[in-house]
């Protein structure tokens, strides 16, 4: 199956065409026939203020995680090519995007994974004009030890396939899906670069359009949050048989660290 979930912006363009061509009730980007999407991050609940303080909302309609005071880790498909970029606004420190206490900071540089071509390597760093020192960062997994178990996902993306963006941060938990099982759904999975999660049998819980770039994370052995994935793509949202696909952070940890150092940390 071909990948079709890219940035929210592109998604909206595709959705507009789909909607115009077919019907107002057509699910955005429904490509393959299959079971109806799950009920109404999809299947999530509201995150509490301060629960995931490292969560970032990006103005192009993606998520991210605070990697260091000046750097936001997101998806390559959320950004343009590497270079100076002052057009992105990051919103931090709030679950309510309309809160008057939101921290809003502009970007000054984008670093997109070298060799990114829409097939794996879906990570990027956005450098902020001003460091955000009032919020904790989210450490990334440096090896495969945490590529298993149950993960937390969060974002302001659609709460159902084809649905609108959210004002309040939603969260959900999704179980790890091994590469072989995930490849049954997606023949174009890049197993070394991607890690899957979701309820294969039932669907119903998943990230969705607009969650891209946000973190998938879990508790480490010291009970601290650690990032194992970056929201990347999937066939629809929360469909049975189609897990969410995430960039495998441990694969890129060394590259992310050296890129971060080159950006000034
Ligand atoms: N590519 C989407 C975005 O730009 C994220 C899709 C995640 N899909 C999924 N079924 N988990 O927001």
Automatic annotation (TrEMBL):
Q: Which residues form the Peptidase S1 domain?
A: 41-261
Q: Which CDD domains match?
A: Tryp_SPc
Residues making up the signal peptide according to the UniProt record: 1-30
* Keyword entries, A-Z: Disulfide bond, Hydrolase, Protease, Serine protease, Signal
Which domain of life, per UniProt?
Bacteria
Query: Keyword Hydrolase on this protein?
Result: yes
A Pfam family matched in the record: Trypsin
Q: Which InterPro entries match?
A: Peptidase_S1_PA, Peptidase_S1_PA_chymotrypsin, Peptidase_S1A, Trypsin_dom, TRYPSIN_HIS, TRYPSIN_SER
Hydrolase recorded as keyword: yes
SMART domains, per database record? Tryp_SPc
- Any one Gene Ontology biological process term? proteolysis
GO MF term set: serine-type endopeptidase activity
Annotated protein name in UniProt: Trypsin
Q: Which organism is it from?
A: Wenjunlia tyrosinilytica
């Amino acid at each position: 199956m071909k990948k079709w979930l890219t940035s929210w912006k592109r998604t909206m363009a595709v959705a507009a065409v789909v909607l115009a061509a077919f019907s107002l009730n057509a699910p955005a980007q429904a490509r393959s026939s299959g079971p109806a999407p799950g009920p109404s991050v999809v299947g999530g609940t509201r995150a509490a203020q301060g629960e995931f303080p490292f969560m970032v909302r990006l103005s192009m309609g993606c998520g991210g995680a605070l990697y260091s005071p000046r750097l936001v880790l997101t998806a390559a498909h959320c950004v343009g090519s590497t270079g100076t970029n002052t057009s992105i606004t990051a919103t931090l420190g709030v679950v309510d995007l309309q809160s008057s206490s939101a921290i809003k900071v502009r970007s000054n540089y984008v670093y997109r994974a070298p060799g990114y071509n829409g097939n794996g390597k879906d990570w990027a760093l956005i450098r902020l004009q001003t460091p955000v020192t009032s919020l904790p960062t989210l450490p990334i997994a440096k090896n495969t030890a945490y590529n298993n178990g149950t993960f937390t996902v969060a974002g302001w993306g659609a709460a159902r396939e084809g649905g609108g963006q959210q004002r309040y941060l939603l969260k959900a938990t999704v179980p790890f899906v091994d590469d072989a099982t995930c490849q049954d759904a997606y023949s174009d999975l890049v197993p070394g670069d991607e890690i899957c999660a979701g309820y294969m049998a039932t669907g119903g819980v998943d990230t969705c359009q607009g969650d891209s770039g946000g973190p998938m994370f879990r508790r480490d052995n010291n009970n601290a949050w650690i990032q194992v994935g970056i929201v990347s793509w999937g066939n629809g949202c929360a469909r049975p048989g189609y897990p969410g696909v995430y960039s495998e952070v441990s694969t890129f940890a060394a590259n992310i660290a050296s890129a971060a150092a080159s950006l000034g940390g």
